[in-house]
Amino acid sequence: MQFWDGRAPTLEEQAKGPVENPIEMGATWPDVIAKLKTDAAFVKEFTAVFPDGVNTENVVRAIAEFERSLITPDSRFDQYLRGKVEAITAAEKAGYRLFKKHACATCHVGELLGGQSFELMGRAEDYFRKRSNVGEPDYGRYNVTKIERDRYRFKVPTLRNIALTAPFFHDGSTKDLHEAVRARRPDRKAALAVVLTMVLTIGIPLGTAITGTAAVNRSIGEIATGDPEAYDRAVARIENWRFVVGIKPLEKACYRNTDLAQHERLVEAYRKITGDDFDEFRYEFDNNYVTD
Length: 292
Ligand code: HEC
What we know:
This protein is mainly alpha-helical. It has helices spanning 11-20, 29-37, 40-49, 56-68, 76-81, 90-101, 124-129, 142-145, 177-183, 188-202, 206-224, 230-241, 247-256, 260-274, 278-288, and strands at residues 118-120, 153-155. The protein is built from 15 helices and 2 strands.
């Protein structure tokens, strides 16, 4: 899925766009092909790989293949994930701990640190309130699906090589990585809203709601990092805290790790506590869940 709204299914489909987009290159493919063909050395090398020569389809394929090579499979972070603890510095370890603690890994998941789902860009009012010119590009996934709940949902970008790819966010609203990370801090007001919902509508005691939310968050972080005992602890926490609202993020964490058997264990644990109201709460939560 390419672009912030996932409108192009493949890299090839994406690569076709910018050439003819008036605010990008503002050219036409026949023009570009004609220009490329004037470079004899280029044509010779190109034809060695694509025998049927320089044409739009082949150029697009070549760009997509180039993009596929832009991976860093043996970075220090990969080495760290494979168990070489000294591969990253103490400061980097501390940063990664914070990343897990603040549940960034629920969305920026797996070794790619993202790229697996579309998520709400904050609660619409919060993120977009600062902006006076909210328009179509801010509707995100909605532009493709036309489903109301997809409004303001964007592809979770990979954070691989993030220091090299400013500006950030679908609107390029910041060039500074520190500022981008600060903008992603969990929204305390939103978290409070979730806790209050639990207290007021489900009747959970305040202390339980707060500690329980923190426990669920810890489980999400642990599941996202592939900790083998994370599910046992998650089930224990569900049984211990006996509330339902945390199911959505937990569920997501499990699905993203594609461990459906473990996912079922969590659902069962919740079901034992909540009975048939389970889906209703899930729906509630999904609609109120404020992302980042
Ligand atoms: C609920 C899902 C979710 C969580 C949790 C989350 N993010 Fe994101 N993140 C997103 C989405 C979606 C975007 C793209 C939004 C946009 O561009 O409008 C994004 C964008 C970013 C970007 C900009 C990337 C780019 O290429 O422009 C950074 C940096 C980032 N997040 C860091 C973090 C950090 C750090 C945390 C934890 C404090 C975090 N995120 C938690 C969903 C999430």
